[in-house]
Amino acid sequence: MSNYSFGTCPYNKEHRIMLFRMPGHIVKCMKNYRGPPLQTCKYNAIHRVLDMEEHLKECEDYHKFTENNSFQMALSVRAQPIIYDEDAV
To answer: Which Pfam families match (predicted)?
Structure first.
């Protein structure tokens, strides 16, 4: 038995793929997919889902990202955009 982790293809639930091969498989399988359009998760591109809001409640990658202290710090120190008043020039 292999030491690799397996996942299920989002386009065909009968496909079990080694996770390190999943990105390439998704590209191939997406071409033949005829169901409702799936959205790509911003936090893990191999996550393809119908309802992104529901997915983000369970997405481990999203939770890791938002719990990261550097993410919170970046939001707190982010500079406001500079808006130029063209009438003042």
So the answer is: zf-U11-48K (PF05253)
28-53, pLDDT tens digit by residue?
999 999 999 999 999 999 999 999 99
Burial group, residue 7, by CB count within 10 angstroms (0-12, 13-18, 19+): middle
- Judge contact between 26 and 48, C-beta under 8 A: yes
> Which residue from 74, 47, 75 is spatially nearest to 60, judged by alpha carbons?
47
Structure tokens at 64: 């890791």
3-state helix, strand, coil in the chain (%, to 5): 45, 10, 45
The pTM score is 0.67
67's enclosing H/E stretch is helix 60-67
- Number of domains into which the chain is organized: 1
